[in-house]
Amino acid sequence: MAVKTYTVTGMTCSHCVNSVTGEVGRIPGVTDVQVDLTSGAVTVTSDRPVDDTAVAAAVDEAGYELASQP
After folding, report:
1. Which Pfam families match (predicted)?
2. Hey, where are the domains in the chain?
3. Fold annotation for 2-68
4. How open is the CA angle 8-61-38, to the nearest 5 degrees?
5. Which helix (H) or strand (E) holds 55?
6. Sheet containing 65-68: which strands, arranged edge to edge?
7. Are 7 and 68 in contact (CB under 8 A)?
8. What are 59-69's pLDDT values in tens digits?
9. pLDDT of residue 70
10. Strand, helix or coil for residue 21
């Protein structure tokens, strides 16, 4: 199991959280996505290491920006 936390900017409401959770959750291998709206932290749990570029692309698809990567 792999766990990584990213920082996402631009999220302001529960709709934002749902969008990011949905897009990141579609990445193959991802088993859980937890989003902290206040801090912008997005914690991704997966059954194998996930490519950071795939997470960045999913966040971008949701309409937000990855501010930092682990």
Report:
1. HMA
2. 2-68
3. Alpha-Beta Plaits (3.30.70)
4. 25
5. helix 52-62
6. 30-36, 41-46, 2-9, 65-68
7. yes
8. 999 999 999 66
9. 58
10. helix
